[in-house]
Amino acid sequence: MSQNTTTEPSTNSISAQSLTQFCDEYLSASAFKDYAPNGLQVDGGRPIQRIVTGVTACEALIDAAITDNANAIMVHHGYFWKGEPAPITGLKGRRIRKLMQHGISMIGYHLPLDAHPVIGNNAKLADVLDMTITGALYPNESHPVGNIATCTPQSADSLIAKITQALGRTPLHISSNYEHHSDNNAKTTANSERVIKRVGICTGGAQDMIEQAAIMGCDAYISGEISERTTHIARELGIDYFACGHHATERGGIQALGEIVAQEYGLPVTFVDIKNPA
Q1: Is 114 one of the annotated binding-site residues?
Q2: Where does a divalent metal cation bind (predicted)?
């Protein structure tokens, strides 16, 4: 578990409702139809003087907030996902009970934090990979959750090295360069001299957007997870795929949002990275 404190302690405070209003407006949260509620999900009932940020509102993050004497946690993955059981029991009940017992509010932003053009997960990932976002994977979306970026022309090996350095983990790479058989059983090799300069990006569990990336003429597609089908899709569409980790690709947005809040309100905000290999 690593921590990064963005400001020194202060006597400033803000209500959970006011903090949520600021974040809602900054992220244009009302523009998104999401899989979970965005904004204030658990009201701890106390003024907020210290904040902990993290990717997921797991019990380990809550424990870190308690240790830090924080009054709020801000996350990308919160609670109350579409389709999950409604009763607050078991694991979910234990997490929420611990938040309430310690007066800790929990604020979560999912798609709005993926899509923000400056501090969103896609934008921050593009930044650390020296890429420039130029458009949307789905051009008709007003707030795209998937993007297209350009970079200095490079090989897959070069991009793997850059991802590894930026995220602290080696991506799983599915190369478009593979042997397949044509109708007459002659072996051919696809894209043996692949140069990557146009890249689709959508962090987290967006591996199935790879087909759209291919439609949009991308040389490669970057996301967090990989499914069994993704390998075949990448090879057959002739596009390189880099699975860089759901957690690893989504640290940037919430950390950046915490820094914005710290600057806006003069509050101590600590990013806590609960290690996750997935």
Answers
A1: yes
A2: 76-77, 114, 246, 250
